[in-house]
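Sequence decides. Consider this:

===
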Amino acid sequence: MIVLGIDPGITNMGLGVVEQVGKQQRLLYADVITTKHSTPAPERIGRIYQTVLEVVRTYKPQAIAVEEQFFYRQNELAYKVGWAMGALLVVAAQHDLPVYGYGPPKVKQALVGYGHADKDQVAFMVRAVLGLKETPKPSHKADAIAIALTHCFFAKLGQPSPV
């Protein structure tokens, strides 16, 4: 199974592609799509769309897993992240890919075994599970990989969370 994990954002969107064969996972790709605040919204969304489209065409994932966001008082940020989510949902629809969502506590539980673990613990487990020499940086990249690994974990248990 190949999973595209996404840490959604409009300024920085993390992408991580993980392949699971049996009980082993390996990292195929990781990057961060960066757009500038000064760039008009249509161009930012177009860049996100094109990059996600290229990743899907190149790695042919069977599923997309995204981190579910929790915005308490950040309405403008939620609105703009929604633009980015719209772009990736269009790619998913065009390629008939299921999309699954996992909140931060589920990611922490899957990777660390504790739903209140800190980001450093999650990043360390990403490195350990995949046998990487270094922790992926920036954090958006590590988070995207963590999301993909979380989906592998829950899919194996038969408990994925469709969006």
